[in-house]
Amino acid sequence: MPAACSEIVGDIEDLISSQDITPKERYSNKNSVTVRARRKQNGEAKRAEAEEYSAPASIIPGTQTIYIKTWGCAHNSSDSEYMAGLLASYGYRLTDNKLDADLWLLNSCTVKNPAEDHFRNEVEAGRKRGKAIVVAGCVPQGAPRTDFLQKLSVVGVQQIDRVVEVVEETLKDEIVSRAKQSFEEGVCELWLTSEDTGTYGRDIGTSLPELLWKLVDVIPDGCMMRVGMTNPPYILEHLEEMAKILSHPRVYSFLHIPVQSGSDAVLGDMKREYSRADFQRVVDYLRGSVPGVTIATDIICGFPTETEEDFEDTMSLCEHYKFPSLFINQFYPRPGTLAARMPRLPAQEVKKRTKQLSEFFQSYHPYSHKLGEVQDVLVTEVSHDGKHYVGHNKFYEQVLLPKRAELLGKMVTVKIVSTSKHSMNGEPVLKDSPWSSPGLTTPPSLAETSGTHRIRIETAPSSHRLIPYTLLMLLLAILTRLVWLIL
Q1: What is the DSSP code (8-state) at residue 454?
Q2: How many domains does one find in the chain?
Q3: Which has the closest alpha carbon to 247: 285, 220, 280?
Q4: Secondary structure of 130-196 in the HEC alphabet?
Q5: 423 and 360 belong to one structural domain
Q6: What is the pTM of this model?
Q7: Fewer beta carbons within 10 Å, N or C terminal of the chain?
Q8: pLDDT digits (tens, 9 = 90+) for 248-289
Q9: Residue 263, domain extent
C-alpha cells in the first residue's frame, strides 16, 4: 500500500471553488470517473490494437465531449442545432474535432444518395476508432435494420428532445461493453476511479451500484475490479448495496474515502458536505458488513482555522481506526478558494502537526497479524525496485512475490512469509491445480493458457514428502530380493 505522504501537496478533492459544493454543480468541472485496464503480459500485437481505443474521460453525465455532424436538408440542420442546444445546456462540451470527442452524434438524411453514403462511411470510421455513436435523422428511422446501423443507439426524428437521455445511456453502455471486450482481450484488472464516484446517475434515475453490477457481470473469474474514491455523503445513500458489491469475489474489498479532518468545525470551514459522524457511519458499516475491507483516507494538517483541539479530534479519529493507508498532506492555499484568503497558521505549527500524525501512522503495522496466512493474489506489475512482482489480495493489500515470468497476470495462491509497514511478502504454494492431469507436473506457459485460471506453483518438494517414496523403494527392493531367493 502507498506510504504516508508528508510533502506539501494540494487537497486532491478541492479542485474547484469552495462555494461550488453541490454534486450537480460539480459535474461540468470534473473528469471524475475513468476506467483503467491492467493488461496481462501476453500478446503485444493484441495489446497494442486494444490500446487504440480511448475510453471516455468521464462517465458522470454531462461531462463528456460530443461531436455532431449533419447531412441533408435544412430541416435536418435545424434538428442538429436543437439537439446541440439541449446537450450544451446540460453541460456537454461540443467540439468540431471528432478525434477529441467521446461520442459522435451523426444526423442523416435520405434526400440524396451521396449523403447516405457519407453517413455510412462516417459510422464505420467511428466504429474503427472505438467511438461511442448515436445516429439520428431519417436514415436510421427509415431503415433501422440496415447492416451498418446494427447495435447503434438511434434518435428518431420525432424523438430529438430525448437526445440527452440517449447519449447518457449510450456512454454508460459503452463503458460496460468496453470493459467486457478488454477482459476478453487479456485485461486482468479493472480500475474504476473517481473523486466523486458516488455522484454517478443521481440526476437520471440510476446510481453507481447499478453501473457497478453491470461491470461485475462481465468480469471473468481470475480478474478483479477496484472501485477507487468516493465521498461520505454520496456513498451514504448506497451503503447496503456497496457492501454487497465490495464483498463480491471479483471486486476488491477496498475503498478510498477522504475525510480530511476529524473536526466538524474544520469540515464546515472546508465547505465539506459531511460530518465526522457521517464518515464514521460509512467506515463502521463497511467494516461490519465486509470483513477485512481496506479503507484508505486522506488528512489535511494545518487548515487555516484548525485549532489544537481540532487537530486532536483528527488524531483521535486516526487512532481509533488505524487506517492501513493514510495520505497526510499539509494545507496548501489553492488559488480561487475561500481558504486561500484566510490567514495561514505558522509554518512550524503545521509541520509539527504533520510530523505528529506521520509518526503515529508509522507506529503500527497493519499486516503483522497476517503472517502465515494463505491468500489468493492477482499479480499485475513489477515492483519499483524491479526485484519482485506485485500482487494484490482480495483487500487490495500489496503482496510482493518472486519475479517469475509464469506468475504475471495470474491469480496465485501464496503463503505470507513476512510483513512490513506497507506490504507483505508471499511465496507461491501448491494446491489442486486446474491443469492437474497424469504426467503434468508443472503449469503450462502463458501462451498455453487463457490467463483466467488460477495458478498454484510448488517452489520445491518438502523433505517430509520424500519419506513415503523412500520407504516404498526400500520395500520394493526387499520384495524383489525375496522373489529372487525363492526362484
Answers
A1: E
A2: 3
A3: 285
A4: CCEEEEEEHHHHHCCCCHHHCCCEEECCCCHHHHHHHHHHHHHHHHHHHHHHHHHCCEEEEEEECCC
A5: no
A6: 0.61
A7: C
A8: 999 999 999 999 999 999 999 999 989 999 999 999 999 999
A9: 23-40+186-364
